[in-house]
Amino acid sequence: MSWKKTSTNNEKPLLPPIPTLFKDLTFYILGLSFSETTSLKSTIKSYGGDVAFQLNKNVKFLLTTKEQFEKNCTKIQTAMKLTTTEILSKDFIDHCITKRYYSIDLINDFKLINKELLINEKQQNDNKNNNNNNKTSSFESTSNDSLELILSKLKLEIKQSTEQPKQPPQQQQQQQQQQQQQQFNQLELIKNEKKSIKLFISSTFLDMENEREAIVKYLIPEIRDYCNERNIDFSFVDMRWGITESKDILKKSTIATCLQEVSNCNYFISLLGDRYGWSSGDEYNDSFNLAKIYYPWIDSHIGKSITELEILQATTITPKFNLFYFKNATSSSSSTKIEELIESEESIKKLKDLKNQILNEKQNKISNFSKVDNLITSIYKDLIERINRELLMSTNGISNNNNNNNNNHRINEDDQNLEVNKNSSYLKSLLKQEFIKNYSFDKLNQFIFGNGINIENSIQSEPKPFLITSSIGGGKSTVLSNWVKQLSNSNQIDSKKTLVVCFFIGITANNKNRIELLRQLFSIIRLQYQISIPISEDPSSLKEEINYWYGIATKDGRNLIIIYDSIDTIEKGANETLSEALLDLIPSRYPENVKIVCSCYTDNYEELVQHFQLDKNEHTSVLTGFTDQQQILDFSKSYLSNFKKELTAVQIEILKKFLEPCSSPLFLSSILGELITIGNYKTLNEKLIMLLSSQSIFNFYLVQLSRWESDTSFPNNLVTDIIQLIYLSGNGLYEDEILSILNLKSSYGFFSQCRNLFTVFGGGSNYFTILSPYLKLAIGLKYFGNKKDGQLLPIESKLLSNLIDYFENQKVNNTTNSSSSSSSTNSLKRKIDYLPKILISIGDKSKLQEFLLNLENINQLSKSEIGKSQIHQYWNFIGINNENFKEIINLYKFKWAQYCNGNPPLEELAITTFNIGSLFEHLSMYDEAYSFIEKSQDYHIQLYGDCHSSVANDIKRLVSINIKLSKLDQAGYQSEKLLSITEQLFGKEHLGTIESLLLNGLAFKKQTQYSKSLEFYKSCLKIFYRFLGYNQSNLFIEEKINNNNNNNNNNNNNNNNNNNNNFNEDLNSPIYFNIKLGEIFQSIADIFRKLGKFDIALNYYNKTLTIYKNLKKENHHCFSELYKNLGLVSKKLGNYQIATDYYEKSLSIVKDNFGKDHVEYGFILCDLADTKRKQEQYIEAETLYNQSLDILKRKLNQDTSIEIAEIYNDLGLIRKKQSNYKEAISFYKQSITIAQKSLGKSHLKISFFNLNLADCYRKIGDYKTSEQFYSKCLLITQDNLGYDHIEVAEILNSIGLVYKKQGKYQQAENQYKRAIIIVNKSLGSDNYKNGIYMNNLADIYRKLGSYEMAKTYYNKALLNIEKALGKEHSEYAEILYCMGLLKLSLEEYQESIKLINQAITIVSNHFSPQHVKIGIFKNSLAQVLITQAKTLPNPREFASNLQEINNIRSLFDNSLSILKTEFGTDQHPEIADIFINMAEFEFQFGSHSKSLDHFKKALEIISIVFDENHSKYQLISDRIRYF
Description:
With 1523 residues, this protein is mainly alpha-helical. Helices cover 61% and strands 5% of the residues. The protein contains 69 helices and 16 strands. It has a five-stranded parallel sheet, with helices on both faces. Strands 11-12-13-10-14 form a five-stranded parallel sheet, sandwiched between helices. The two termini are 67 Å apart. The N terminus is likely disordered.
């Protein structure tokens, strides 16, 4: 079946022109045909531009073709001379219109000649001979704008020169596969050399102040960006430290500090001008002698300047990549006093000798410069050339795939690649010292390999992680790093079959977050095995897909080893324990060939052992630090050897006196790390004693903090401001962020001092954070110890304000094609992570609202369900709740309209529009959401065409929303289109098509096309089983169930203890640990539930339940839908209490996860109300229906929502039960009107609603109309569900009742018999519905006078109900009552009275003595007594027996009272019947006046409930006229 097309979204949308796109731009068109010129003119003008008739200075762009340009005609030559005119390809116009924005950056790709470079080259040639005569400051002569322009041109030039010609697709694919192979496996990465740049800039300070200022301000940011985009770590050292006077450089530690930094760098730049530098004096001698202790080689170079010593260190001692730049002899370019620049003749000679020595070394690269812009140009070119040649050729980076289909994933995966490199870098930094071998390696190897050489040999029935623990700083990370190195060198493990992934939690800004860790892990698996399956953006989906990605990683016998180091530092929610947090990261069950290794502090050891139920002997290892003196000495020797240093005999003896605190690896390594840091100490021995005397790592941190504070080389408050800022930031800050936030040009050397404590990678990182809990505690105690609860300290308020200002002012480019999009996205992500939390901490609601109304921020937050929830929470903090949230929706719509007026780039517009729509969908604002996502789809089609992943994502959301809005025709059409797109993107029967298949299944299910829906779901199941290599023998349960078996167990055992339902499947199978399979099983179960095959449905639901319990917390929202569905099955099977229990569980979960105002809460309330209605608890049911209706009216479209239609239908059922037929008919008509708008006239739902309307007409005696509606319902239901569905049986039973009322007993008999056959097939012969239908059939035989047949079927019905429901059930009483009526017909009055009294007793016990059935039964009992009295020889004697008369009157009165109470009204047909019976009784045996009163009351009721044309009204009127 094909879906009806209700949309034209498959056509490329024509967006209206932007009248300001080319505003104030004048074009000139050259070399095009007349028709092309006319068309192009019209287009330009419609977008606000102008077209000149003559080429003049007002023309901004000349548009032509490449062929015309190469002819070099007169007009081209004229344009070349016009400095204001650029010559562009005519395609520039189409490109701007497609992108829907104009930017100066766009023209570079369309220039037919780069005039700027030509002009710049000419200017440089013209000025070449004048450089030596320049009398002004070189920095002043070069404006900021010109430096930025120079770098911009250089970047463009380098980009063009390094662009490779486009390769054939096959060659591109081969190259990409080669680049990606093994690049994410730590077993291979650990063998690769680390790619990093640490740049040292050397010069004399006083004559190079302006040059260094320009380098730092302009060059360094560009180099850093260039490196970041290529996954190269970049840092630089600027030793100026804010020097303003010459005396500032005369510090004792200066020479040693400079040499230390040079030795740590691998790139060295030397600027040499007119000065030799500091080389004499007492201060020089003191500094030289101190440096000699650390660098003995300088002993033979006494009297050489610090600049020459730096050059010697870089060229001979620790050779670097060196660049030398000689400044041409000029007048001073510095503001420094002339007398400070004058040097001795000896210094001048030394400078000349130094330059000659450098010139004589052929390997040295030397350039000359006169102006700052010349210097910046040369350095930039030289560095980029070196980076491209030496680093990028061997870097395992991801190739820049420009395929738009994969653009978003490429950006994300570039980020993940960066995270992998950082984890790998940290791991390698820990290998600098070889940790003392301990039993952890043996236990770890045993855990991984077991007793053999393959990972499979260690498989256990219930996989558990391995846990390493120690006190803080006990060496866990080092042990793990050395163990991975051992694995990589081992022949026991094949890196092609085993993927090792390491996460050192806390070393970056992102990897403390569970969701980011999962995203990184899945990206690594995806890229390692080149799987073209997208990774979910939704955090909830990421958590659910853990075992799905585990399955991919372990497919075909592969293995996966995951290491989570320092899991204590993972981010936790408020009041969340570590164990609870880890449930999102480490599932309770997972595939056997996945091995997980964790490390934690001893404080959390017992909790995690208990949580994972670990055997301490097999699955844990406790590190105790260094256990003896020799280990401490060996470690110290190993550590210091990395810096070419060693302890003297005296220092070793000092160390021996502090063995106890030195048993902590963290304490010892911190002491040694500080020991090699230069400071103002007379001797190293004194320094060592002072450090060791701190005795503990906590005291050591306090000592360090105090020492930094007291260091007069740092400006006042600099140390405290930086440390407190890092502390208050929470996750840490980058070096440049700290400087910007505190408005500092430099850290004055403090970053070098504190880097060892606040950074990772062996102090080589520019990301400052607090990894050690002891350091965090020390800072908190020292700086915030006197803080009162709820109050901010002045410095705290100031720094938090600075943080807010900094992140508020971040400018981020969101376009996906930006060259810096990855770093921009990271900046925005940090802003999103930091800013709202800070604003909430200080209670600034105004700025938080500004943040929330910034579409840039909303764009980022709306990418995930957690982000959308955060938006909701932030608005709640401000004071906006669910009741007034629509005004916020209007604000967002207004902001979006303003944003569109700014003509943003089309890519950015599409992304922003989608994210806003996604946010609205999350907030259940479906109409608004649909409108925005439909616009997003239009934009994406215009950008990429129909077949693109972004278009597929749009359609996916549109299908989901249309289903929620009950627009099923549109949903069906769109889901088919979605499947077509995904099959083109991924191929048929590929995992990437699963979601599209599921949506198609859902759309067909909603359209009641169950067979078609089942086909899609089964296709999903087959793809999964085949791709993941699962056993397909038990693929489809229904093929194994014998439908002729007795199914009665499903009636009484709907409690999920169906141990036989899984056909002896292994519950440890990977099948039961794959969340995607759980979703598919549940979808298939839904279909079988709809088809009335409840035994099969229960089997699939129980499979889902097993999976969910294996993988999810008890209150996870996925259980809500499952419990609701199990409730629906239980309700259908008549197990109302079990159904109620399921619904209440489901409600509790939705309330905890989403709140009571969520649309799903309304749906479940409706199902619970339906169960209460089935139990005849009408008041409670109506209350629940109205609560549900209140929620759904606010969340859904009242005119088309099928859920709202169903509630009106159910309210009609209640009114019908209360005999308020007029209101019932009104409710039914409302439901039918809504449903027909949404579903059409032949939908199954319409059939059900009409069925109830038909039943209402039956109740009021309009049997002809009722029969018509029943017949229509029967046809629709049979077409949709088949002839043997249980719902067909219900309709047949109702038709039988109509025929019975009309006296068409033969037709009624046929309907009941067919209904009984269907029940036997669908539910089994012992199902209670069999008893109900047989009871109705027996009634027909009683009416026909076939009393034996009636007796037979009554007995069968009684036996059935007794077996299914028991003797105390009200249905059992119903049959006894009917048998009593049979006895009345047989004139066996005493037996009749006995049976009716038994029925009354059962109902009284089952419900209450005031139940409506008691009233009906007592009315019939009175009739039996009256009939019996009429058979007496002298009935008049009975009339004189007041006791008997009053007894009958009492039965009538009691019956009347019960019915009035239960129905809640006097106006009910059953009450009218009692009044008629009472009137006839009084007429024969009592008072005629009472008889007349009773007839009049009955007539009044009939006129109200029905009308004066009703047959009963005519009958009663005739009786009244008799009086």
